[in-house]
């Protein structure tokens, strides 16, 4: 068995017995990256010698990190020209936690520039390809993390999720992706996109690994005042309980026209399977779902316009050499350093916050966000979890939506609400289309109840074999 | 029209982003379509609703006011495009009298 194809929990026994070494795992990953990544372009920064050096002095599993999470002295660029050459002087808290567990940092994964996108097409390093069909996108913005895990170039990886950026690529690449509750994982050292929505989370080959990785990165951090001081449960142990008697809601608004027929059927079949496993599923309503995309693209861009003000060519990264004055330097640096989607979002967000438009756009969006959150508060008084498709379609073709930003935004329609409400969500494989493209099932839960959604995911996974099918690459 | 070309130009100026004529043209059309779409929020009655800027019940977070180690200046300046001594260097800001 090739070690790169295994999960972290599968590697533990042979490591304990001494059948394999940590260096063996690292070598197996390096070989897979060298063999496959020319085709996929999932990895943005990879230094083979440095990775091997780290493996020698550590006893832990190798991991890839999304390129918007700070790793001390390692390139961290958000796949943007404006951060070219940037090497942070400190580690993100999640990195410190992983290093404390012995993890070996292998490199950084490709992403949509500043996590602005659903297809990994806006990266300054070029598009990442979907391992199931190289003509298709892997989803985004954590497309590099999802593609490298799906193609066995990694054991597991970290991503970040602001509107579905972990769950949607996990769905489109046929792997497991978890967005934790807002506040569960420290955001210190995550280069901010939208501070009230961003969370770091695991991208893994199965649910048990997601539980292991979530446990490793969770917990209160004094460096992030929005991280919550709640005890971290022993997820890997707790998810193995059965799901008999759990009440699961199926929101009718997530089975709308425009949802791919094969996706819909796979999700309905998964719901049947959950009932066989003892859960009680019933149709319910989240009435404000149709407003989620509109709210998100005002709130997220408003926050982004503020967060990205720091990229001005003064302290780090790219600076335009064409300017005559400081103001001119800011403007030209930002014109040449940011890609189109970043510029579009900064302008949209600045507009939504600007005098004369603030009340009509930003403030109204925050009020509708209250309605969306109330939908979930009400639903979770009755249900333990909610299941939906993760994405309305399987992976689309490269270039298919990149010319039209609004069409691209609408592909996030099923994942955005969880960020607006701050609740956790996980995407797991639940089937394939006739063209052999993966389909994902999304399970949403109560705030700080990752345990229940992972438990449902684990039970479903154990009763199915979707996660064992691998792309031929 | 949900947004005019002049407004995009003005907002880009606020955001300190220079735009070419071509970018201005392209962004105006795209932002117009996006704003047409988000205008669906106007159909909802939001009177009496509190805005949710944050999902957690936020309260002020205090920490002990004690001196802790901070990054050395040379570490902080390591990524600077231009520097002089312990300072970030930029074009002259103040006009000569």
Give a description of the structure.
The complex is a heterodimer of chains A (473) and B (97). Chain A is α/β, with parallel strands linked by helices and 473 residues long. Chain A has one domain: Amidase signature (AS) enzymes, CATH 3.90.1300.10. Chain A contains 16 helices and eleven strands. In chain A, helix 2 runs antiparallel to helix 3, helix 5 runs parallel beside helix 6 and helix 10 packs across helix 13. The model of chain A has no long low-confidence stretch (mean pLDDT 97). Chain B has a domain of 39 residues: Histone, subunit A. Chain B has three helices and two strands; from the N terminus they run H-H-H-E-E. The radius of gyration of chain B is 23 Å and the shape is flat. In chain B, 18% of the residues are buried. Helix content of chain B is 34%, strand content 4%. Chain B has a two-stranded antiparallel sheet with strand order 1-2. The N and C termini of chain B lie far apart (46 Å). By secondary structure, chain B is mainly alpha-helical. The chains are: A alpha/beta (473), B mainly alpha (97). The interface between A and B is large, with 71 and 50 residues.
Secondary structure topology:
The complex is a heterodimer of chains A (473) and B (97).
Chain A: H1 8-17, H2 22-40, E1 43-46, H3 48-56, E2 62-66, H4 93-100, E3 104-109, H5 143-150, E4 156-161, H6 167-173, E5 176-179, E6 199-204, H7 207-217, H8 235-238, E7 247-251, H9 261-276, E8 280-284, H10 292-307, H11 326-337, H12 340-353, H13 359-382, E9 385-389, H14 405-410, H15 416-421, E10 425-432, E11 438-445, H16 450-462
Parallel strand pairs in A: 2-3, 2-4, 7-8, 7-9
Antiparallel strand pairs in A: 1-3, 4-6, 5-6, 5-10, 9-11, 10-11
Helix pairs in contact in A: 2-3, 5-6, 7-16, 10-12, 10-13
Chain B: H1 5-14, H2 21-38, H3 73-77, E1 83-84, E2 87-88
